[in-house]
Amino acid sequence: AQNAGDFGAGIALGSQTGTTAKFWLDGGKALDAGIGCNDSLTLYGDILWHSWRVFPQPAEGKIPAYLGLGAQFGGSSRHGNNVGVRGVAGVAYWLPRNPLEIFLEIIPVIYLSDNGGTSVDANIGLRYYF
């Protein structure tokens, strides 16, 4: 698992294409945040809980699954200026002997203001750990 204080930054491509960062609180919990800019500016932040036991671990590298809960500001122009509650379900692959994380996330969002509504977003990305 990752260590408390580890910090990674990178890019995400998909529904919220932009920058992403992740800060580990301990071996199973982390905070992530990002700025996306597809059809409108989106700011988001989540707390993530990781499990290293969902998938069989490869001979090299690591594969955690994770779930999270967070908030986002902005989002799809069809929902107007919105505050949303978001869930995150993801899987990552940590490259062996490299400080890189590749991830794939599905993100359902419930919008709480303006036009309301829901969306399901998805991102694929890469973070480099310093």
Question: Could you characterize the architecture of this molecule?
Answer:
An eight-stranded antiparallel beta barrel has the order 1-2-3-4-5-6-7-8. It is 0% helix and 62% strand. The protein is mainly β. β6 and β7 form a beta hairpin.
Structural class: mainly beta
Q: Could you state the oligomeric state of the chains shown?
A: single chain
Specify Rg, calculated over alpha carbons. 15 Å
Total number of β-strand segments?
Answer: 8
Order of helices and strands: EEEEEEEE
Strand content: over 45%
Largest sheet: number of strands, sense, barrel closure: 8 strands, antiparallel, barrel
Summed up:
The protein is an all-beta fold. It is built from no helices and eight strands.
What's the helix and strand layout?
Layout: E1 7-14, E2 18-24, E3 29-37, E4 41-51, E5 65-74, E6 83-94, E7 100-111, E8 118-129
Antiparallel strand pairs: 1-2, 1-8, 2-3, 3-4, 4-5, 5-6, 6-7, 7-8
Q: Could you name the key traits of this structure?
A:
130 residues; mainly beta; elongated
